[in-house]
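Give me the fold.
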Amino acid sequence: MKEIPQDKVVYKTTNVFDLNSAPKAILNNHSTKSGIWGKINVIEGSLLYTIQSNPQEETLLTPEKYGVVEPEVIHKVSPRDNVKFYIEFLK
């Protein structure tokens, strides 16, 4: 997983999602637009983050480990247990 470039700034933050409120769109393969990065922040529980690259990359996100979404890279998340998380979008 790459790091978010230092010059990127947060311009939008989602609500906090849980197992029941996570939008279906983020549970299926999707991507951000050109130039848009994402930071997936887990408040409690865990979230499986899958990057559809070759080879596919899976990372278990926790409050101690956030996920980085690169622009235009296909990915999805799978909520685990009593997860609570939010996403920051940067450009």
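The chain has a mean pLDDT of 96.
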